[in-house]
Amino acid sequence: LRGSKSFTAALPGETERNGHGLSYKSVSVGHLEAAPLSPSRLSLGRASSTATSTAAPEQGRPRDYLVLAIFSCFCPVWPINVVALVFSIMSRNSGQQGDVDGARRLGRMARLLSIVSIVLGTIIIVLYISLSFRGNIPF
Hints:
Layout: E1 6-9, E2 16-17, E3 23-28, H1 39-42, H2 66-72, H3 78-97, H4 100-134
Antiparallel strand pairs: 1-3, 2-3
Helix pairs in contact: 2-3, 2-4, 3-4
């Protein structure tokens, strides 16, 4: 046996007689009117938290630090600089979608990871060169 997807309910204003003298209307489940979803529920992306932000909105779009992230890719700290590049691209995409707060947050993380990558890369290069000239590391 298969269950039915319809039901009968008394609806004010939209009634019809069902033969028994009672006012009921048969409605299918597919025809029920649902409340519209909020815009944040319709989106599959990150929700903006501009409603909870207390800071005054800054003018212009937030920085994504893409050039800095690309420059950091030349340093020998590859896992960190690749993640910085990904955060930078995510920041750019969030800014283009209108999520200013998310773009700012991702841009700051891209900047931090890029700076860490450049500093660690410089330390590694300096250590390698200094140990190479002392003869401890063969070419």
